[in-house]
Amino acid sequence: MTKASNIHYSAALVGFGRLATDAIAGLTDVVEAVHRQIASPSRGAEPPWAQGSAAGTTARVYDSIRGVARLVDGGLAKLAPLASPPDGRRLSPAHEAVVAALNGVVGDYLARTLNPLAISMCLRRRGQLLEIERHALQATIPQVTGKVLLLVHGLCLNDLQWKRKGHDHGVALGLALGYTPVYLHYNTGVHVSENGRLLAGLLETVFHQWPVPVEELAIIGHSMGGLVSRSAYYYGKVAVHHWPRHLRRLMFLGTPHHGVPLERLGNWVNTTLEVSPYSVPFARLGKIRSAGITDMRYGNLLEDDWKGRDRFASAGDLRAPQPLPPGVQSYTIAATKRHAKGSPGLDLFGDGLVPVNSALGRHRNPGMNLQFSESHQWIGHGMNHWDLLSHPAAYDQIRRWFGLQS
Fold first, then answer.
1. What's the rounded Cα separation, in Å, for the pair 181 and 234?
2. Residue 30 within a domain
3. Which residue in 35, 114, 226, 396 has a CA-CA distance of 20 to 30 Å to 247?
4. Burial of residue 14 (number of CB atoms within 10 Å: 0-12, 13-18, 19+)
5. Does 248 fall in a domain?
6. Rounded to an integer, what distance in angstroms lies between the CA atom of residue 42 and that of residue 368?
7. What is the pLDDT of the chain when averaged over all its residues?
8. Percent of the chain scored above 90 by pLDDT?
9. In this structure, are 61 and 130 located in the same domain?
């Protein structure tokens, strides 16, 4: 596990500085592009009144802005050690929440540019990094059991946010049924398939280093976390890992198995902006959103779902069907802000983000249906996407399902 998994103040200062610098430079590019379009709307030669402006004098102004940004970046890097607390304290939960949100929005960029704010995948408990080594795990988790419960958070969130309104599904299931909960911490802005591969390898290491024999592995995925879990199972099977054979339960909370309409709408708006030469520069802002977010358009799981394609292009659902893991007890929970009246399956925005049908794995193409059995589906009425983390009725249903014998 890398030390970058726990971000400290000094690294955060450098990271935020770089991100601010990159944002200045990026917005400068957009403004300059608008200037060029206004000054020379045609593809031909610049009009006489514009000569020496965007391509000349003002170009030097734009370059100066970028130069200042680079100087600011260098200055922040020098100041970072002075700003770090002497005891090397980690970021507060509030700061970690901000970093997690940034990773969700531009996490692929942070990783690509080696920004210290990029989250490295790891397992944590109570926000503390777990060293995946047998003796270290035994020392860190003294009452470890063979029933391993992995909790995988959703887009723009982190592992600490499983605790909401004083409740944590992992802790509650540990006390009630003897599971040992561990929490994945990861960069939600990179492709789901990339996180799936990483998680598959991490779980194989956990399987071999767990202090006691693994009797059962169970996974709860909230939102994007469910997609990452399904992806991990696929890549674990491809790599002939041992852990998939011990996966007994896979539970999805508000997982967009077939995507979210808000991302499809965002992609349509972005495509529309590219129609006019005056709005084309602004379309770049829409293309800031991460690979993780664009994977949510249709619920991409695998590299083949996106590789070789422009992820911002207007295209339909190109995924190949991926069934639920055979032999694994798979359960899904959807939420709708509506109460019991009406048909929740027709609720386009469901819990405010994920439609009910998407969360239940239903698709108008029969080959894409995930075929959850009726007894393995549940709809929480009068709930939003985040209520699935803490609502007593949602936990009661999870508890009942986990109490069933495999």
1. 22
2. yes
3. 396
4. buried
5. yes
6. 46
7. 80
8. 52
9. no
Q: Is 201 exposed, middle or buried (0-12, 13-18, 19+ CB in 10 A)?
A: middle
Q: Which amino acid is at 156?
A: C
Number of H helices, E strands in the chain: 12, 10
Find where tokens 């108008």 sit: 364
Is the C-alpha dihedral spanning 334, 339, 343, 346 positive or negative? Answer: negative
165, 241: one domain = yes
- The boundaries of the domain holding residue 327 are 122-259+319-403
Amino acid at 332: T
Q: What backbone phi and psi angles, to 5 degrees, belong to 177?
A: -130, 5
CA 202, CA 216: separation in Å to the nearest integer? Answer: 16
Sheet holding 329-336, edge to edge: 128-129, 122-125, 180-185, 147-152, 216-222, 247-253, 329-336, 377-381
| 193 and 72 in a common domain | no
In a domain, 268, yes or no: no
CA–CA distance, 165 with 150 (Å, rounded to integer): 20
323 & 245 share domain: yes
Tokens standing for 239?
């790599």
Strand partners, 208: none
Domain of 340: which CATH number?
3.40.50.1820
Contact between 117 and 54 under an 8 Å Cβ cutoff? The reply is no
Domain membership of residue 278 (yes or no) is: no
Alpha helices in 40-92 (DSSP H): 58-83
Kindly give the pairing relationship between strand 147-152 and strand 122-125: unpaired
pLDDT of 203 over the 60 cut: yes
For 54, which DSSP code? I
